[in-house]
Design a protein that fits this description.
With 137 residues, the protein is an alpha+beta fold. It has a single domain, classed as Immunoglobulin-like, CATH 2.60.40.10. It has 2 helices and 8 strands, in the order H-E-E-E-E-E-E-H-E-E. The strands form 2 sheets. Strands 2, 3, 5, 6 and 7 form a 5-stranded antiparallel β-sheet that branches. It is globular, with a radius of gyration of 19 Å.
Length: 137
């Protein structure tokens, strides 16, 4: 009887761990794009690679001032998203000669101070369920 109970408990633990260990999705929507021209570029980062090479990136068309993407197969952890309006559709963010951006941009948590986004201001956690975020430029 003890053997059967041990097998059942071990099986339940295995199933529970398998369910919670499944990778999640992050859906991000920019809700205030100023025009439907071009597209919005999104980049997903962790603390180690923030503002360098993203873990995942995607672009999305703009419809009625909104643009949405979904990052899939995201493991539990802390992440941040940076996005920008690629209004002229040249696949990069454009800047003035003095370094000021020519295109609108935003980051998760919408905490935009002067200067580029900081990971600590933009971070959010993926734990045991899918995440959905609204980002404003």
């Amino acid at each position: 009887m003890k053997l059967i109970l041990a097998i059942l408990v071990t099986g339940m633990i295995f199933i529970t761990n398998a369910i919670t260990a499944q990778n999640k999705t992050i859906t991000a929507t920019v809700v205030n794009v100023t025009s439907d021209a071009g597209k919005v570029g999104f980049a997903l980062y962790n603390k180690t690679n923030f503002r360098m090479k993203p873990l995942q990136s995607a672009t999305s068309k703009i419809t009625e001032g909104k643009s949405t993407i979904t990052f899939t197969n995201v493991e539990a952890g802390e992440y941040a998203i940076i996005c920008y309006h690629d209004k002229n559709d040249n696949d990069k963010m454009d800047f003035m000669p003095n370094g000021m951006p020519l295109e609108n941009y935003g980051a998760s948590h919408n905490n935009m101070s002067f200067g580029p986004p900081k990971f600590e201001d933009a971070k959010f956690r993926v734990i045991d369920k899918n995440v959905s975020l609204e980002i404003k430029f």
